[in-house]
Amino acid sequence: xxxxxxxxxxxxxxxxxxxxxxxxxxRFFMDQGRKQGVLVRFESxxxxxxxxxxxxxxxxEILARANSYIHLQxx
Length: 75
Known about the structure:
75 residues; two-stranded antiparallel ribbon; globular
């Protein structure tokens, strides 16, 4: 199971620069974050409709190609 501490290290990072392990942590929290009290958001040049209507794997592919940054909100 991925930890919130691992996720916190990704705050403000560019999606394209993440390692495979970091992407797995991010994807876990994109899918399960609300249960953990975390909302993952992105600031991106990509068309929001293109990446919000797909699964987390495809979303990360789209965001990695665009100028995209990770932002976290803790509930």
